Amino acid sequence: MHESEILSRWVDLQQKLAGESDVLKQQDRREHARRLVAAFSRAAQSGNLDDIHTEGWRPMLDALKEVSEARAALGASTAETATFFFSLKQPVFEVLQRELASHPEQLTAALWQTTTLLDKLGLYTVELFQKTREALIHRQQQENLELSTPVVKLFDELIALPLIGTLDSARTQVVMENLLNNIVSTSAAIAIIDITGVPTVDTQVAQHLLKTVAAARLMGADCIISGLRPQIAQTIVHLGVDLQNVTTKATLADALKLALQRMGYSIVKRGA
Amino acid sequence: MDRIPVLKMGEFLLVSIQVDMHDRLAMTLQDDITEMIVRHGSEGVLIDISGLNMVDSFIGRMISNIASMARILDAEAVVVGMRPAVAITLVELGLELPGVRTALNIERGMDILRKHMRSTETTGDADSTR
């Protein structure tokens, strides 16, 4: 009876609050609201209005989970999601006020109980929303780590590691492990680390590069660092980083030539 | 296991570490290797650590020391088969083993030793003709 009234008031309110900025389509919003109000009414009728972690509230919590995940996937902000749920208070209060207008004491008690209950459910929604977002961020980080460190085989016993993006400690660890495992699996004698795609080289990045080179050497593979741009060469010298013990080349092509030469190959142009 | 065998292979010595080393084992190995180099006049030592899963700073230093001692006794030492995890650990410990020759596997290590022997032989000849 009150369900449809609350629902339509809530949807109208949301419309007003969200304005143009809301990422959700009106249709989706109406559907979410319908499911939540239905689940809420069923749960409230089950009796327990104090603890939302009882069996009666399970469908409501599930519905909330779905809605908050859908909002997170669409890129809604935390404030939007919280406002969305807390705007349910107004229509519910209006109904309560009308119904209990002649019993002020009961009204106060009912309002207090409802507000506590809705707050709990609201916080639960926000928490879920946050968790979904965090899971998303974590997954993206993981994907970034894996995507950005490919090891390519250039020739028999010759591999290259084209680095793209800034090197931090976490990435260096992944890069290093990746490179060393590839040295074992391809039994590479020489590895070329190409830093054309590394925007800036500071002391820390240089330190990480030197560590990688040292680890590769311990495994019996020589490293050549290539792709040093003029600015980077200047920075390295200004910073006083010692790259004396590492072979460096300006371009990947130069490094490839040197590597092949060291491995005893000579490149001959046919017909010349 | 209280001893790691040191095998003589012609001009070279072959040491294969297949267990995780504890400190006493490393000390014994150091004694055995230096002893064997002197007794047989070996020209090269191949230390295979492909079985080594864990290293600490002590073991890292021992490997470095053994290589230096071999060089003083005029034998080239090559450490082969280091695992990625071990290499990372050593680098993080700051033990980059400068001056120690390394190779990916025994075969490559053997190549390095042979090449080294050939080069010393030719310079030796050049000295004698003078």
Euclidean distance between termini CA atoms of chain A: 93 Å
CATH topology of the largest domain in chain A: Globin-like
What strand line-up does the widest sheet of chain A have?
A: 1-2-3-4-5
β-sheet strand percentage of chain A: 5-15%
CATH superfamily of chain B: STAS domain
Give an account of the 3D structure.
The complex is a heterodimer of chains A (272) and B (130). Chain A is α/β, with parallel strands linked by helices. Chain A has ten helices and five strands; from the N terminus they run ααααααββαβαβαβα. Chain A has helices spanning 2-18, 26-45, 58-73, 78-86, 89-99, 104-147, 169-186, 203-218, 230-239, 252-262; strands at 152-155, 158-164, 190-197, 222-226, 247-249. Chain B has a single domain (6-129), classed as 2-Layer Sandwich (Transcription Regulator spoIIAA), CATH 3.30.750.24. Chain B has a five-stranded mixed sheet with strand order 1-2-3-4-5, with helices on both faces. In chain B, helix 2 (57-72) links the parallel strand 3 (44-48) and strand 4. In chain B, helix 1 packs parallel to helix 2. The longest helix of chain B is centred in the C-terminal third of the chain and has 24 residues, at 106-129. Chain B starts with 5 loop residues before the first strand and ends with a helix. The A-B interface holds A 173, 176-177, 180-181, 183-184, 187-189, 211, 214-221 and B 79-80, 82-84, 86-88, 90-92, 96-97, 102-105, 108-109.
